[in-house]
Specification:
Layout (H helix, E strand, L loop, with lengths): L15 H8 L4 H5 L7 H15 L3 E6 L5 H12 L3 E5 L2 H19 L5 E3 L9 H10 L5 H16 L17 H5 L18 H11 L2 E5 H10 L4 H4 L5 E4 L5 H9 L1 E4 H18 L6 H16 L7 E4 L9 H22 L4 H18 L15 E4 L4 E9 L4 E7 L3 H8 L5 E6 L9 H7 L6 E4 L5 H4 E4 L12 H16 L3 E4 L3 H18 L5 E3 L5 H11 L3 E4 L16 E4 L10 H12 L4 H18 L10 E5 L3 H4 L3 H7 L4 E3 L2 H9 L6
Parallel strand pairs: 1-11, 1-12, 2-4, 2-5, 3-4, 5-11, 13-18, 13-19, 14-16, 14-17, 15-16, 17-18
Antiparallel strand pairs: 6-10, 7-9, 8-9, 9-10
Length: about 675
C-alpha cells in the first residue's frame, strides 16, 4: 500500500509560480495579514493542494503544528477550487473559518468568492416550535423562562437564527430542545413559516455560495440521513476539504451505524399522547395506546441491573430477559403504529409521530439478525444488507436509558461509495494522520488505499522549545492506585512550573480522582494555583479562565486533548496520565480486532497502537503552539519505556529532548542546558 509519506520531489505543478508569489513576504498575504511570514512547509503544502485540485484527485496532507495549514488549503481553494466544501472538526472551528480565516484570505487575494455557513438544524431557532413553546409554556425552571424571553427578543433582530449568536443562553440549556426542530419534528413545506425558515434560508445560501463551511457531523449525517443540505451541495462541488481529518473515522462510524434508545421511544410516547389528545381525542384511548409501549421500554432498560454496561450481543447470556423484552418492545411499538396509521390523516403532527415510530421500528428490526447458537453466523455480528459489510450489534446501558447499536466494522467501503461518480478533488488534512510518517492506518480506515500522502514538518524547534519527561518508578496503569501515583509524580513538576498546566486524563473517573487529590494537596501545601475541572463549566469558559489566570491547573479528559489552543506562558506543562488506548472491553474495538486477526493481521499493532499514537500526538500537540512557547510534556505511563512498542510511540511525537530526571525538568525551566 503506497501510503508512506512521499519522499521524492514532485514535478512542478501548474500553479507553483502563483503559489510562490502569493506566499512570498512581498505578496498579498504578507501585505494584508499582520505577522505573516513565509514558511517553506506552508508554501509546499499549498502547491501540493493546488496540484490535487488541478488534477481533481485525492491528497492526504499532514502538517505539523505551526505550518499554517488553514491558509495552505484556503489560498488554492479560493482561487482554483471551483465550488468548495470545507468540513471542520467542530462548530467552533467552523465559526472561526467563516468569520475570520476565509474573509481574511478572500480580502488579501481580492478573490470574488461568496461564502456560506451551514450547520445542523438543531443550531437554528424554529419559528413554529418557538411559537408553540411560548403558547403552551412547558417550562421546567425559572431559568428557562428567562432564556425563552431572550430567544424571543433575539428572533426579532437575527438574520441567521443561529443560536451561536445568542451567547447569553448557554448552548447546553434545555430550552433549545423546545425551540429548534429535528428531522422528525420539522413540518417541512407544510409549515406556515416555511418561507422564513432559517434552516431553509441557510441551505439556499449554501446552494448559491462558492465556498460552504460545514462540520464533519453535518457532512456524515447527510450521507446517512440526507437531511442536512449537504446532499444538494455535493453533486456540484469540485473540491471537498476535510480539516481536522483525523476525526473522520470516528464521526463516520457514528453516522453509518444505527442506534435506537429507550429514551427515544419514551419521548415518542409523550408526543403521541400530546398530539393524539390535541387532534384526535375521539380516535383512540391515547393513554392506553402509549402505556404498554412505555412499560416495554422501561422493562427493556431493566434487563440490565447495572448502571453502566457495554456488551456485544454475544456477551449477553441466551437466557437473559433482554431478548424477550426486546421482542415485547418490538411488538408493542407495532401496535402503536397500527393506531397511528388510522389517525395520521387527522393532523400533520400525528403523521410525524407515525413516521418516527416506523423508523424506530425499522431500527429495532435491525436487531432481528441477532445470531442464534448454531445459526451459522458469528455471534455478535450482523450483515448490513445495503452495504454488504459486517457490523457489530451491541448494547449500552446508562442509569435511565438503554441504547441498541449496530455499528459497521469498517467505514471504508461505505465512504468509498460516496467518493465514486463525479470527478472532484478530496483533501484530507490534519496535524495527526501518520505514525512515524506512515499513513497506512488512516488510509485503511477511510478506504483511501494508495492515494498520495505527504507530510510537512512543524517549523518549531522542538529540541530547544520542549522537553519530554517520563517519570521513574510508576506502577502499571491497571493498578488500582495508579491515578494517585500520577498525582504524586506530578505535584513537584506542577510546583516547579508554577502551575500553568494541563492534566489530560483518559477517563472521567481519573479526572474526578485527580481533582479531589489536587484540591487537597494545593490546600495542604498552600499552593495558590486556581484549579479548573472539566464538567464544572463549559469548555470555552474554562479555557478563558485558564488563560486569564496565568498560573492555573486544568484537568480534562478527551475533549481537551484536541482543538485547544493556549499560546504563551499560561500553558507550560502538559501532563498525560496514560497512553490513550481504547478500553479493551469496547465491543466495536473487539469485533474490529477479531476481523483483522481473521485476515492474519495483528489487531494490536495494526489498529490499537496506531490509533493510540494519533490520539497521543493530539494531546502532546497542546504544548507548543507558537515559536516562542517553551514547555514540558510529562507522560506518566511506564509502558513508554518498558514495552517494545514504546519506542515507536515516542518516535512519532515531536522531537523533544528526553529525560527521566526531575532535576532535568527543573533545570529546563531555569533555562539551563538539559543533556539527554
Amino acid at each position: 500500500m503506497a501510503v508512506a509519506a512521499v519522499a521524492n520531489i514532485p514535478a512542478p505543478g501548474v500553479h507553483d509560480a502563483d503559489v510562490d508569489r502569493l506566499f512570498a513576504s512581498s505578496g498579498p498575504l504578507g501585505q494584508a495579514v499582520g505577522g505573516f511570514r513565509p514558511r517553506a512547509a506552508q508554501t509546499e503544502m499549498a502547491k501540493a493542494i493546488a496540484e490535487a485540485i488541478a488534477q481533481q484527485r485525492t491528497l492526504i496532507a499532514e502538517a505539523g503544528t505551526g505550518t499554517g495549514k488553514t491558509f495552505a488549503y484556503l489560498v488554492p481553494a479560493l482561487l482554483w477550487g471551483g465550488k468548495v466544501i470545507v468540513s471542520t472538526g467542530t462548530k467552533n472551528l467552523q465559526d472561526q473559518l467563516f468569520l475570520r480565516d476565509i474573509p481574511t484570505v478572500r480580502k488579501a487575494l481580492s478573490a470574488p468568492v461568496s461564502i456560506a455557513l451551514l450547520k445542523g438544524r438543531a443550531n437554528y431557532v424554529c419559528h413554529f416550535h418557538l411559537e408553540r413553546t411560548l403558547q403552551n409554556g412547558r417550562m421546567t425552571s425559572r431559568e428557562d423562562v428567562g432564556y425563552l424571553r431572550e430567544i424571543s427578543r433575539f428572533m426579532k433582530t437575527t438574520s441567521s437564527g443561529d443560536k451561536a449568536e445568542l451567547s447569553m443562553v448557554p448552548e447546553t440549556a434545555p430550552i433549545w430542545n423546545l425551540v429548534t426542530s429535528t428531522r422528525d419534528t420539522c413540518m417541512g413545506a407544510e409549515c406556515q413559516y416555511y418561507q422564513d425558515c432559517f434552516v431553509m434560508k441557510a441551505r439556499k445560501e449554501a446552494q448559491q455560495a462558492d465556498v460552504v463551511v460545514v462540520n464533519h457531523h453535518l457532512f456524515f449525517a447527510d450521507v446517512a440521513l440526507k437531511d442536512t443540505g449537504v446532499a444538494e451541495l455535493l453533486p456540484s462541488a469540485n473540491t471537498v476539504i476535510f480539516d481536522e481529518a483525523h476525526q473522520l473515522p470516528e464521526v463516520a462510524t457514528l453516522f453509518f451505524g444505527n442506534t435506537v434508545s429507550t429514551s427515544q421511544i419514551l419521548e415518542l410516547c409523550r408526543d403521541v399522547l400530546a398530539e393524539g389528545l390535541s387532534h384526535a381525542r375521539d380516535g383512540a384511548d391515547w393513554g392506553q395506546v402509549v402505556l404498554p409501549v412505555e412499560k416495554a421500554a422501561r422493562d427493556l432498560r431493566l434487563a440490565f441491573p447495572q448502571d453502566v454496561v457495554r456488551l456485544s450481543v454475544n456477551q449477553i447470556a441466551p437466557s437473559s430477559i433482554f431478548f424477550p423484552a426486546l421482542e415485547t418492545m418490538r411488538s408493542q411499538l407495532h401496535g402503536m403504529i397500527v393506531v397511528l396509521e388510522k389517525q395520521a390523516e387527522r393532523a400533520e403532527t400525528i403523521e410525524q409521530c407515525r413516521t418516527r415510530a416506523v423508523e424506530l421500528g425499522y431500527k429495532l428490526d435491525g436487531w432481528n439478525s441477532t445470531p442464534v447458537a448454531g445459526g451459522g453466523k458469528k455471534a455478535g455480528k450482523a450483515v448490513a444488507a445495503d452495504e454488504g459489510e459486517g457490523s457489530v450489534l451491541w448494547v449500552e446501558a446508562f442509569s435511565s436509558s438503554l441504547q441498541l447499536h449496530q455499528t459497521p466494522l469498517s467505514i471504508a467501503p461505505i465512504f468509498n461509495k460516496q467518493r465514486e461518480g463525479v470527478a472532484r478533488s478530496w483533501i484530507f488534512t490534519s496535524a495527526t494522520l501518520a505514525v512515524k510518517n506512515d499513513f497506512q492506518h488512516y488510509a485503511a480506515q477511510m478506504g483511501l488505499g494508495d492515494e498520495p500522502a505527504q507530510s510537512w514538518p512543524s517549523p518549531f524547534d522542538y529540541g530547544q522549545q520542549g522537553l519530554l519527561y517520563v517519570p521513574q518508578n510508576l506502577p502499571q496503569p491497571n493498578s488500582p492506585d495508579y491515578t494517585d501515583a500520577v498525582i504524586d509524580a506530578a505535584l513537584p513538576v506542577i510546583e516547579a512550573s508554577g502551575g500553568r498546566a494541563f492534566l489530560l486524563c483518559t477517563t472521567i473517573r481519573a479526572v474526578n480522582r485527580a481533582a479531589e487529590r489536587l484540591r487537597a494537596e494545593f490546600e495542604a501545601r498552600h499552593l495558590d494555583f486556581p484549579l479548573m475541572v472539566q464538567g464544572e463549566a463549559g469548555r470555552t469558559e474554562l479555557l478563558d479562565r485558564f488563560r486569564a489566570a496565568g498560573n492555573a491547573v486544568l484537568i480534562g479528559s478527551q475533549s481537551f486533548w484536541e482543538g485547544v489552543d493556549v499560546r504563551g506562558e499560561a500553558l507550560s506543562l502538559v501532563i498525560i496520565d496514560k497512553l490513550p488506548f481504547s478500553p479493551p472491553d469496547d465491543p466495536v474495538l473487539a469485533a474490529r480486532i477479531e476481523a483483522l486477526e481473521s485476515k492474519g493481521m495483528n489487531g494490536f499493532m495494526h489498529h490499537q497502537l496506531p490509533a493510540a499514537i494519533i490520539n497521543l500526538k493530539q494531546g502532546a500537540g497542546r504544548l507548543i503552539r507558537d515559536e516562542s512557547d517553551r514547555g514540558v510534556l510529562m507522560i506518566c505511563d511506564p509502558r513508554l519505556i518498558s514495552k517494545g512498542y514504546g519506542r515507536r510511540i515516542w518516535q512519532s511525537l515531536p522531537p523533544f529532548k528526553r529525560t527521566r530526571e526531575l532535576d532535568a525538568v527543573k533545570a529546563f525551566w531555569r533555562g539551563d542546558t538539559v543533556a539527554e
